[in-house]
Every structure is written in structure tokens, then in C-alpha cells.
Design a protein that fits this description.
heterodimer; A: about 220 residues; mainly alpha; Urease accessory protein UreF; 12 helices; globular; B: about 230 residues; alpha/beta; Rossmann fold; 7-stranded parallel sheet; 9 helices; about 35% helix; binds guanosine-5'-triphosphate; binds magnesium ion; CobW/HypB/UreG_nucleotide-bd (chain B); GTPase activity (chain B); UreG (chain B); nickel cation binding (chain B)
């Protein structure tokens, strides 16, 4: 395996559709809950320890070779908002296209055949990591990082934040990212014995509610 | 006049069913995909609408719009009933219209794929970019050829300024020539500057909203389509 593949997978420029999504940041900006660097930092910390942790657990389990279709169900159970389910599957479909070009594998082909309309993005991310020869912990890192890098990039555009301050938000979250990724990978190890119930199921009700409101808005810059 | 780039049809490499490969999943030559880019308000949607009206009797057409903030372009086309509703799809671009047509084309490819799934084989897919700046260009993974639409009211020095859209697009449309007298635009200078920037690549000066104004653009599409259909699958 080549660890450097993780840099490719986690690169914000990896062409998998993420640039059109804000991870709930646009809804938070609209509601003025995120309005400056400090509130962005708190938003990201909250998202990382809830949606980010859940995504990291699913990704780690998929990277460990656990049945992606069962993980799909586990992702649905952890995603009560229909808007977020739809956004997650759409992003999963787009990631699948990019991953099959970057790291072709029979497992990715099989998932694409089983879920032509898309599988949940963290599940695809984990399987992409696996196809790239990466470990479950690597996959957890990619998912956890993405849960905060997307909102930060979107907020730089939405609020015209100083990009250096915004990047510092991500840098200061490094210890939290380590913690979340390690916890997610550890939970994924317990899946063979305990089933998908072993995976994190932390919820962020406000992200769910505002995601539903966001898709109803007639004018928005980001799809989610 | 040469109508085509030497690299008119990108190397076929298979990146999934709706990548740049020339062949669809059924082995038939897939639809020709044409991108329309250009500054805000230059007449991209008006061009798409006029092309649909002119070509829909002879071709099976679908449209993808890239709306920055709303679904306005898609809704305009629906209101004008230039095509049945199921032939028009809107893609959301996330504050960065050029990213969605060049750096990360995932959402647009997905829209193309969905249209093909629902409608069956198509002849032509028009992809309108969100209004952007003079550097916006389409990826070869998304389109087979691109039209850049500017207008005389945006300043008659735009062809001279150049930029990738003006210099490298497969067809440059200088639109709203009907407004030239009102805005004091020098059409001859615009044509001359475009020629200097583009060499043998074609340019048309027209007003797509006037009667017959779309004809040179529609004729160019017909030519591209003939070459595309004749090409290797
Ligand atoms: N006079 C004149 N007006 C035109 C012509 N073509 C388009 N327009 C008008 O120019 C305005 C903008 O046209 P659109 O087709 O919406 O422009 P667009 O490039 O799609 O704009 P965005 O998608 O917002 O970037 C509309 O009011 C059109 O009616 C033309 O040939 N002559
Ligand atoms: Mg338009």
C-alpha cells in the first residue's frame, strides 16, 4: 500500500462533487449562528464530533471490508433527515465515479452495480480507501477531516472570512480529529463481533432540521 | 474556414458510462455534448432556448443548466416551453460556476447520465454554465465542444482582451448586435479583434433573439453533429 494515496483521497480538489455542498454551513450562516471565525470554530467542533464521527465510523468499517450494503442501512439509520440522505447518496455516487477512475476495483464496481443511484458517501469513501490500499484508520481520518474542511471552505466564500483565519480553525482541530478518527477506527474493529450497532451514532438534530429547511429555500449557493 | 479544433474529440478513455468515452453503454454513439459559457447576461439561456426551438423537430435534445443561486435559467426554459420539462435539468454549483464545468464535473456528468437514463438515446445535450468571467472553460471530460457567448453591450473591447473563453472556444458568439448602435459598439473592431485572437476558429456576430438570429449557431451545431456521428464510436 502507499500511504500517500490518503493525500489524494482527502484533497479538497478531489473531483467528487463536494465543492457544491457546505455541510450545513450555509444554513448556519443564513441563521447567523455562524458569523465569524469563533462561531465557525464551534460549528466545526460540533459537526466533527457528531456527523463527522458517524461518517468516520462508517468509512472505517467499509475500509475494513465490512459488507457495504449493511453499512448503507446503518448510514440510513443514522441519517434521519431525508434531505441529508439524498445529499449523502448523491455525493456517494459522485465519489464512486472518481474513485473508480483513481483506484479501480471489483468491490467498487460491485457497489456501483448494486446502488446505481448512489450509496452513502462515507461508505463509498471507506471502500475507496480500501481500493487504494489504505487502512480503516486512514479512511476514518479522511471522513473526519472532510466533515470540517467542507464547511470551512464554504464559509470562506459565504462570509468572505480571512482564509488564513479559516485555515487556522482546521489546524486547531487536529487533536480532535486524531481523537475522532481513532475512536471511529476502534469502533469499526468491533463490528464483526457486535454488528453495526458498535458504530458511533451521535446525532446533531439542528444539522438535520436546518438541512430540511435549506433544501426548501428558493435561493441558495450550496446544495446542502 | 476551419470549423474544428484538431483535438475536437477528446481521447476516449472510459471513466464510467458518462465520462468522455464516445460510446454509450448500449454501444451506440452517445449524444454530442455542447457547453455554453460566458459572462453574466450575455445571452446563454436565450441561445439555448433558440437552439431548442430551431433544432427540436430534427433532433432529440436535452438541456442541463448550472444555476448559481436559483433555478432561474431552468425555470425560464420551462416557462418558454422550449422542451418538455423532463428534458431540462438544473445543477447547483456551490458559489463557483467554473468549478462545476471544469475542475469537478461530477454533478454535471450525473445530470447527463440521469437524462440519458430517463429519456433513452439522445442526439444533443446542451450544458449552460452559470454566468462567469472570461476565464471559464469546460472540461473535455464533460463536453465535446464549447460555445462562448459574449455580447456587444458588455464592452466592445472584450474580444481584444481575450482570455481562454474568447481565444479557445470552438465557437465564439458575439450576441446582441441589435444593441450595437445604442451602446456605441464597433462591430467591425470586435470581429477584427476576435479574428486576431482566434485565428481560424469561427466567430459569429448575431442577435439570437431576433428572427433568424440563431441560424449561424444552429448551422454550426448541425456540422459538429454530422462530424460527431461520423466519428469512431
Ligand atoms: N437585445 C437583445 N437582448 C438579448 C439578446 N439575447 C438575449 N438578450 C437579453 O439579455 C438578457 C440576458 O439574457 P440571458 O439569455 O438570460 O443571458 P444569460 O447569459 O443566460 O445570463 P446568466 O445565465 O444570468 O448568466 C435577457 O433580458 C435577454 O432577453 C439579443 O440578441 N438581443
Ligand atoms: Mg442563463
Amino acid at each position: 500500500m502507499h500511504r500517500a494515496a490518503l493525500l489524494v483521497l482527502a484533497d479538497g480538489r478531489f473531483p467528487a462533487g463536494g465543492h457544491a455542498h457546505s455541510g450545513g454551513a450555509e444554513a448556519a450562516v443564513t441563521a447567523r449562528r455562524v458569523r465569524d471565525v469563533a462561531s465557525l470554530r464551534e460549528f466545526c467542533r460540533g459537526r466533527l464530533h457528531t456527523a463527522g464521527l458517524v461518517a468516520a465510523g462508517l468509512a472505517a468499517a467499509a475500509a475494513a471490508g465490512y459488507d457495504p450494503l449493511l453499512l448503507e442501512e446503518a448510514a440510513d439509520a443514522r441519517t434521519p433527515s431525508p434531505a441529508l440522505r439524498q445529499a449523502g447518496r448523491r455525493l456517494g455516487r459522485q465519489l464512486l465515479r472518481a474513485a473508480r477512475a483513481a483506484w479501480p476495483s471489483p468491490e467498487l464496481d460491485a457497489l456501483a452495480a448494486a446502488r446505481p443511484r448512489g450509496a452513502h458517501q462515507p461508505v463509498v469513501l471507506g471502500l475507496a480507501a480500501r481500493s487504494a490500499g489504505l487502512t480503516p484508520l486512514d479512511a476514518a481520518y479522511a471522513a473526519a477531516y472532510e466533515s470540517v474542511s467542507g464547511p470551512v471552505t464554504a464559509t470562506v466564500r459565504l462570509l468572505r472570512l480571512d482564509p488564513f483565519d479559516a485555515t487556522a480553525v482546521l489546524a486547531r482541530l487536529a487533536a480532535d480529529l486524531d481523537h475522532v478518527a481513532a475512536g471511529a477506527a476502534e469502533a469499526a474493529q468491533r463490528v464483526p463481533a457486535d454488528g453495526v450497532a458498535a458504530l458511533p451514532a451521535a446525532s446533531a438534530p439542528l444539522l438535520d432540521i436546518t438541512a430540511e429547511q435549506h433544501v426548501m429555500r428558493p435561493a441558495r449557493l450550496f446544495a446542502s | 474556414m476551419h470549423l474544428h479544433h484538431d483535438d475536437a474529440f477528446p481521447d476516449s478513455h472510459v471513466h464510467g458510462p458518462a465520462g468522455s468515452a464516445g460510446e454509450g453503454p448500449d454501444g451506440r454513439r452517445r449524444a454530442l455534448r455542447i457547453g455554453l459559457g460566458g459572462p453574466v447576461g450575455s445571452g446563454k439561456t436565450a441561445t439555448v432556448a433558440a437552439l431548442c426551438r430551431t433544432l427540436r423537430a430534427e433532433l432529440s435534445i436535452a438541456v442541463v443548466t448550472n444555476d448559481i443561486y436559483t433555478r432561474e435559467d431552468a425555470e425560464f426554459l420551462l416557462r418558454q416551453a422550449v422542451l418538455p420539462a423532463d428534458r431540462i435539468t438544473a445543477v447547483q454549483t456551490g458559489a463557483c460556476p467554473h468549478t462545476a464545468i471544469r475542475d469537478d464535473i461530477s454533478a454535471n456528468l450525473e445530470a447527463v447520465e440521469d437524462l440519458q437514463d430517463h429519456l433513452g438515446p439522445l442526439d444533443l445535450i446542451l450544458i449552460e454554465s452559470g454566468g462567469d468571467n472570461l476565464t471559464a472553460t469546460f472540461s473535455k471530460g464533460l463536453v465535446d465542444a464549447q460555445i462562448f457567448v459574449i455580447d456587444v453591450a458588455g464592452g466592445d473591447d472584450i474580444p481584444r482582451k481575450g482570455g481562454p473563453g474568447v481565444t479557445t472556444s470552438d465557437l465564439l458568439v458575439i450576441n446582441k448586435t441589435d444593441l450595437a448602435p445604442h451602446v456605441g459598439a464597433d462591430l467591425e473592431a470586435m470581429a477584427r479583434d476576435a479574428k486576431a485572437q482566434r485565428g481560424d476558429l469561427p466567430t459569429v456576430l448575431t442577435a439570437v433573439k431576433t428572427a433568424g438570429g440563431i441560424t449561424p449557431v444552429a448551422d454550426w451545431i448541425r456540422e459538429r453533429l454530422a462530424a460527431w456521428t461520423a466519428g469512431p464510436a
